[in-house]
Amino acid sequence: MRFWYSGEMTEHLFYQDPLARTFQAEIREISRDRRELVLDRTLFYPEGGGQPGDRGTLQGFAVTNTRKDHDGKILHILESPLPEYMPEHRPDYTPDDTPRRTGESISEGTILTGELDWDHRFDYMQQHTGQHLLSGALFRIARANTVSVHQGAEITTIEIDLQTLPRETLEAVEDEVNHQIRLDAPVRTFTVDQRELEHYPLRRPTSRTGTIRLVEIEGIDRVACGGVHLPRTGLLNLVQTVGHETIRNRLRLSFKIGNRALRDYRERHREITRSAALLSCHPRDLPHRIEAGQRELQDLRRELRLRTEALARHILGAADSPETPRELLLEKEPEELLKALAEEACTDRRRRIILVNRCGGEALWAIVVGEDHPFPQEELRRKVLAPLGAKGGGKAPLWRGVLPEASPERIRTMTRAFLDLWP
After folding, report:
1. E runs forming strands in 135-202
2. Are residues 107 and 175 in the same domain?
3. Which helix (H) or strand (E) holds 337?
4. pTM
5. Are residues 223 and 154 in the same domain?
């Protein structure tokens, strides 16, 4: 298949042999900033159809992306401007043994050797081909139409025109796709004229006209598509469902496809095995051990809360008469104790107390003024908090917050200011 632009043509090598990794091409155009190249032929697929553009190298110069411009030209985007001449540090050979002497000029007509970033290309061929299998299986098994697709760096998502999908149905779709992978079915691409489309029923109608490129996995899926795919389904290895969510009244399904699925399985297996070893159990017993641990933790937290509340009652009960304004200073105590002390202090209508818990460079504070006394909100803000830059607030009978730069002197200044409200 050839593509014409400006009276010239760029040969789409990526359609002819999707597994090819290197090629030679002639420079046809160089942009003014020498950051974009147009070649007479290329293996670099330009981004489109949800598939990102290829990257790699041209004569060793890094290509960070490939895309089409508004005229349809395939642009190879370089990481840095192409030099006028071959740099001296470059070796006097290329992967295909074509000499490239240092000092040789680089201009239109120069032949370059291109090499794909193969891991990147192969990954997205797996994503694109796997998406075809999944969309085909979703249509056949669940009568779900694919509305949109996103091939991300970690997962591929497929949005369908249903709001829900039973777990058993989704598992049947996954099983069917992995069965088709094991069959190693051929993935065929061919072009037809739009007038011939009636002889090729498509899973999804197309609005394209003229010559249309079709991708077919016999008995599984057939759709108009301009992406780059694997030649056989067996190269997918594995597909697994990893999540789902409802968005815009449609269901979005998330998948790990190909090598991503294998890596995810390996990582999950490693973490599950490690977690089971920490709990001294078999991996299959891990959910039960976690549930038992959660129940035990809840019981311990409940017991700790009751003991903290009892300690707070004891501390406040051992103090002087609650009618006397007082201070209570703590050092590096749990935040739960300060909270319990404040809540216990609120139960006595006569109480007027400032509680401060110094932890490192700051201190947490709580102020309680019982209902038997007017709550001096404005005075607290103006005389106690503002001079020291203390942050916080609340409503009667409790205010609380934080005191930055909580040196003993600053804490003493704060508590003295509070006690001075009742001379």
Report:
1. 146-151, 156-160, 187-193
2. no
3. helix 335-345
4. 0.76
5. yes
